Amino acid sequence: MKTRITEILGIEYPVIQGGMAWVAEHQLAAAVSEAGGLGIIGAGGAPASYVRDEVRKAKELTDKPIGVNVMLVNPEADEIAKVLVEEGVKVVTTGSGNPAKYMKMWKDAGIKVIPVVASVAMAKLMERGGADAVVAEGMESGGHIGSATTMALVPQVVDAVNIPVIAAGGIADGRGFAAAFMLGAEGVQMGTRFVAATESIVHENYKKMLIKSKDIDSTVTGLSIGHPVRSIRNKMTKEYLRLEKEGADFMEIEKLTLGSLRKAVVEGDTVNGTIMAGQIAGMVKKEQPCKEIIDEIISEGTALLNKQF
User: Which of 96, 159, 217, 280 gives a 20 to 30 Å CA spacing to 206?
Assistant: First the structure.
């Protein structure tokens, strides 16, 4: 299946794995790339040395393109930006800011730059800055979110820019894939569906909680303080929301989440940890290999797109 995204990135299918902190490491990224999509290593708040090590480990597992997601608020973002050039990374996705200061260095190195955006204004800014494509991410996504839904955001971004648009948020199967393309996207990015992949290193407790979740089991914390995050309801989110409602001090609220994602992903703490997941959590029914996930999505999605109404 060819689109501008597959051609730009040198991949078989226009499916990109989200750069989820603590989740998107070298094993998962390599498995997605081997399956024909684009695997992404999530730098999150990790040091540059971790990113370098993860990139090298991924290259030992696949010779296909691998990307890295850079959170621009990371204190070591400057060093990470250089590591990506030194290690010959092919694709960079960015979040939480404007990658303008790194754009020339990355472009000169032949790196494709794809910022994640939550608004038309940001998409236009990224296009003017030299981005090769953008990921238009709706609030159905897990983790840090914007305020627009995927259904509303994607077509508006498609109409506003000339570079390819990748849809993200609420996409779990071939139906979501086909819907994204009908909205004008030329690729999709998925995070939550890959959390339950066989190759995902996420703790078994996290995977089980995700798989048993229903459609209404996710919630958004941090709206009152301007840092909305979507995750599955548990003791931690209930306490967070209680403190928000009571108007607690920002630092008091944030103490609840310090290290909470690692608690869930690595230690399997589904009570006090942060179980980041999108609203499609209720559609993830079982643990599957990345290749099986991608093959199912492409098969169902292309059949729907080719169907005559």
Answer: 96
